[in-house]
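Report of the visiting student (M.T.), summer placement. My assignment was to run the structure pipeline on a short list of targets and document each run. The first record concerns Transport system permease protein.
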Amino acid sequence: METSRVRTKTPQDLPPEGAAPFPFPLGADPSLPAPDALPLGKQTFLRPLLLWGALPLGALLLSFAVGRYPISPGQLLHALETALNASDASVPSALDTVLFRIRLPRILAALLVGASLGASGAALQGLFRNPLASPGLLGAVAGSGFGAALGICLSLPFPAIQALAFLWGLGAVLLACALGARMRHNPLLGLVLAGVMTGSLFTAATSLVKYVADPSDKLPAITFWLMGSLSSVAPRDLLFLLPPVVLGIAPLVLVRWRLNVLSLGEEEARALGLNVRGFRWLVILCTTLATAAAISVCGMIGWVGLVVPHLCRMAVGSDFKALLPASVLGGGVFLLLVDDLARILAAVEIPLGILTALVGVPFFLWLATRKGAAF
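After the run finished, the structure tokens were exported:
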């Protein structure tokens, strides 16, 4: 009867006394990475990213199909194949108009605006280390609203109204930064207080413009614009929207890891070599560009930049290497789905600002009251 040979561990196989334990389990192949050696981002990032990457495609197809003029999946696929030159068949003119001249610009605008607000909200929450920070914290939303109301009251053409809204949004943030810089002992608190004051100032100025506006013509237009909508988006608006959105979001995504460093505190971030002051101004500049451009095209839409980062944080964690890209995708998908609801819920289109509040407030109440909630 043959007995099996079992090799017993000798003193040479064990680490010396007082040495660190084996970096790999006994019997494991040292050429393979240990399970705990995976970066934190990959542990919390890969699987949710696949899901969040598929969501925009599904929301895009759904948005093409729903609306006052419903389109079947077969018609939609046929039209898309024809548009991509994969088919020689023609598309009915009515279908072509609805899909590519009305819905496509609106869908792209919703994705860009939602991505801008989602990324800006996540970045500002990390910058101020405040879960209630939103894109309107420094007055960009209120300033853009005043600029648009002023342009409508002056009967300016629509491109001029958009430009005025964008410039006043930038101006409001510059004013907040100038006021906040005077509080040198606590710059972050100074910025927040200055942003609140600036927002209140421009909100009052907007109310004054509404008070003196023509109640039969200008006042309804101002009120509708302030409630937010994508119903009047045209292809030219995308050309106005795209450059500042890209200039705002791209740097945030490229330097998103620095928000993790800043979350440790300013002193710790400086000790790790981060230029806190320069990085703070970079984040403020990028978020202001993206927010002012978004608001100038679609009006005042709230809650997206506040709700979406928290929703993404529940899905991918608090690591900004995963959170910021997820907020970009999640913001676009969120606003796109809300815009779909605005088109199909009632006989008349519901303003987006109303729907985002109706969705955002219950979510925040649930988030604040759920067991173990941690903002």
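The longest helix spans residues 93-128. The domain at 96-365 is CATH 1.10.3470.10 (ABC transporter involved in vitamin B12 uptake, BtuC). I thank the supervising group for their guidance throughout the placement.
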